[in-house]
Specification:
The chain is an alpha+beta fold. It is built from eight helices and 24 strands.
Amino acid sequence: MSDPPAADPPAADPRTAEVASGEGVSLSDDHRRVLLRELGPGEAVRAVYHDGWGYAVLTGKGLILLRNLFAPKATRVDRPLRILRRSHGVLDSVEILVDGRPHKLHGSKLDPKGELLEAAGELLPAGSPLRPGRGRRTATWLRRHPVSVAVGAAAMLIAGLGGPGQPDAVARDGADHAPAVPDFRGTPLATAAGEARRASWRVAAADASSAARTVTAYRTGWRVCFQNPSPGERTRPYGRTLTLHAVPEAEPCPSRRDGTRRVVMPDLVGERYDAAWRELAPLGLDRVTSFHAHTGQRLDERRTSLADRRVCRQQPEAGIEVPVTTRVDLWLVAPGASCTEPSPTPKPTPKPKPKPKPKVDPKPKADPKPKYGTGSGTGAGAGSGSGAAPEPEPPRPRPSRDSTAEEDGTSGGTGTGSGTASGVGFGQFCSPVGATATTSDGRPAKCFTGKDGAARWGYRSG
């Protein structure tokens, strides 16, 4: 097929890629667009033929006839095709019957002898009522062959004189002597083709699955799954084609002719990823997804090199028959790593940190009040009191210059049980708390406990 317009790229479409580069029949742009719209998902084109002023496209499902040069239309012809006449003439045309009308197909570069067409159909018997114009052809032949007609009539007359029932016996003997078609199913393709040719059959080969792979009759490593004509059918091989439908010996036969290709899943566990891919690609299992064997996360080949990683698990399992559309899942590990997920290393439990003790604001304690005993004293400052033996006194405030009393901590004057004194200074240490005095300048003073717990003289307001 010639180069298509940019809007309709058959070469980029997998359904038409094979014929786009290898076929000799060129379709117009309008015919290409109609063909692409008519093709179903996964329906691959095998060959393109001339059909008078139109075209015929052979696919895995049958024929698509493209008619009308100015407004192309597509017509489907399902398999099996009705073949009126096998490859013949200078153009090696194959004549098929569509809706009661014959079509002569020829000119395909991929199928020059029409073998793919014959493999996709069945030859209509000579006496089939479906054949068009039987009466006209017979009358024409009788007019053109008068001598043969006369000889035939004489032979029938002689046969009639031979006695009743003899023509039936002759016809029956002819049918009985027609050989049965051998059964080549399960036989290697090359072996079956050789035996068929020795039995005077013309042999053609085709892919038995929907993969539509090109196969020749003497290709080794393939096995016959189906054949046309069917095994046991009584027919004479001379001038007839026996089509052998085969698959590679490593593949199981599909459930029906042109069915989905099936393969046996190989054992990939333990292999490198690149070796596993090379084993899957020829089988058609090209939908491969990779995961990490330990984490189960999907691996992206565009970011991480997977070639040297090793396969730990696979799905589907080895030995299972699967269609080529099956997705294959592989679980991989890095080179040298074990497929078994290592146990996590236990981490030591950290010791609990001691909780800090709550901080207690220290509150200053007042100095204990001294206990004084009874007695009297004289001097510059005298005081009296009663009680038991005196306890140790706290440090006494430093006396002022005017003070003449030294023993009771006052700054002069007379002291009594209430702790009165005169000539003290504000801020000086004092004892006991609550005692009163007069400063040197005549202001009243009283002994108070400060914030630091020490007793000092302060101003007495009342």
